[in-house]
Structures are given as structure tokens and as C-alpha cells.
Automatic annotation (TrEMBL):
Region ranges (Disordered): 1-25
Taxonomy, superkingdom: Bacteria
Protein's name according to its UniProt entry: Helicase-associated domain-containing protein
Feature: compositional bias, Basic and acidic residues: 12-25
């Protein structure tokens, strides 16, 4: 209940009520709201690491670390905290899995729109990047290192292409 009260206070902009929530609950709710606000404002969730570390602002890095901490210690979170993270539009328990799902969905849309798999098209950077990602997945499928659920999804994608004629 303390976390729910704190979350409501932070969301409404009210000062925390005396005796209504603890400092820890207030801090957790405020951190989640900062995390969600960052995602809304920047169009991506905060990262804690990047290839060019100098380009990563400290605020973003700290929010990314906060999210990693939530994932790592999920078993110590309260029921409210887990539910609140589940419904958060910004938080993902497995961000790499979410990214994989987004990429396979992009491939499916590409096949539905163009009637073919993406290829290394130098004039279309988006298609080029998608084709590189797809190539890595197909290589993992061929080597038998792709997770079973992902192998099934990739096989379904390939079955969409069978029998289609390429569009101009």
C-alpha cells in the first residue's frame, strides 16, 4: 500500500502525505516516473551503456542502471512494484527479447508489404539494417543456436515468403 500511495502522489504532483508512504516508497515511485518520462521524451528507454560512452548522459545512464537493478532483484520487489513495472509503457523485464520481437515484426511487415524478405539494399538504410539482423538470425538457426521459440517464429516468417511473387 505504501508504494501505491507514493506512486499516486508522484503521478499527481502532490507532496507525499505524512504517514501515507515511506521515503523508500517515495523514492522508488519518483524513479519510475523519471524513467517513464525519459522514455516518453526521448522515444527510447534509458540505456546504461553504449559504444560511445561519452555520448551517454549521466541521467540516462543512472536511469538505465535503476531499471537493471529492478530486473536483477525482481524477487525482492513488492507485489505492487512488480505489477506497476508490468503495466509501465517504458519498462521491459527482458529488453533484448522485446527488441527481438520488434525486429521479427518488422520483417513480417516487410514481407507483407513487399512480398519478399529484406535484402542488403544499399539505397534503403532501414531495409539494409533489417537484412543484417535477419542474416544473423538465419545463421543462428542454421547453426542450431537460436532459441526454440525464436526458431519457430523465424520459420513462420520464412513460410510467409514461400509461394509469393516479388513485387517491383
Amino acid at each position: 500500500m505504501l508504494y501505491a500511495t507514493a506512486d499516486g502522489d508522484v503521478a499527481s504532483g502532490r507532496e507525499p502525505r505524512r504517514g501515507g508512504s515511506s521515503k523508500r516508497a517515495d523514492n522508488w515511485a519518483a524513479a519510475l516516473h523519471r524513467y517513464e518520462e525519459f522514455a516518453r521524451a526521448h522515444g527510447h528507454t534509458p540505456r546504461e551503456n553504449t559504444r560511445d560512452r561519452a555520448s551517454l548522459p549521466g541521467v540516462e545512464r543512472r536511469l538505465g542502471e535503476w531499471a537493471r537493478y529492478q530486473r536483477r532483484y525482481a524477487d525482492t520487489l513488492t507485489g505492487f512494484q512488480k505489477i506497476r513495472l508490468d503495466v509501465s509503457p517504458a519498462f521491459d523485464w527482458d529488453p533484448l527479447d522485446g527488441l527481438w520481437e520488434a525486429r521479427i515484426a518488422d520483417c513480417v511487415r516487410h514481407v507483407q508489404d513487399k512480398g519478399r524478405l529484406p535484402y542488403l539494399n544499399g539505397t534503403d538504410r532501414g531495409e539494409f539494417a533489417l537484412a543484417r539482423w535477419l542474416g544473423r538470425q538465419l545463421r543462428q538457426l542454421q547453426m542450431g543456436t537460436l532459441r526454440t521459440d525464436r526458431a519457430v517464429r523465424l520459420t513462420e516468417l520464412l513460410s510467409l515468403v514461400v509461394g509469393k511473387t516479388p513485387s517491383p
